[in-house]
Fold this protein.
Amino acid sequence: MLARLLTFTVWALLALCSAFWLLKLLPAPLPVPPQALPAADGTGPRADLSRLFGAPQAAPVAEVAVPVDGRYKLVGLVAPKQGGGRHAGEGVAVITVDNAPARTVRVGAAVDGELQLLALDGNSAALGRQGVVSLRLTLAPPVPAATGSLPAAVALPPPQINSNPPPQALPVMPPAQQLPPELPPAQTGQDGNTGNTR
């Protein structure tokens, strides 16, 4: 029993030691520089909890006709889903303020100072303060597609059909091999032997 307890203790110490040195050898995350600013303004989308507790839905806010302000321009938007669901009522607009670079703004978030993005629909965004719409931005209509006409089709003459078959290529014969020159015939003597005369 003592041997088992001693073995367990040794292995536990070995595991703790290896975990300590493993954590020491792994690279540590870089600290955030003090001049860094957070990317978001920290005001996330505010959820409407009244539906969760069963309160009746509020009537739509009455809009007041307001003049168009040249400081704000709606560049693009993602309209919220219609009907119920997990993402109902959420939407994002891309807005420029004073010709600055465009930035995305969620419904309910601040656009400029106290001015908030209150609502989105298919092609416009409503801005205002404390639930009262004071400015409505609309998307510029899309540029019409370039149209034109093609030149008139020209009828080409039908292709000429040749009734004569194409000439057949003659088979190529390999060049004839030259035979070695013949030797002159040997003279025969009276005895019928070749080449020996007496």
Observations:
- Confidence is low (pLDDT under 50) at residues 64-68.
- The first strand starts at residue 72 and ends at 78.
- Residues 18 and 24 are 10 Å apart (CA to CA).
- The beta strands are 72-78, 92-97, 103-106, 110-112, 115-120, 124-129, 132-138.
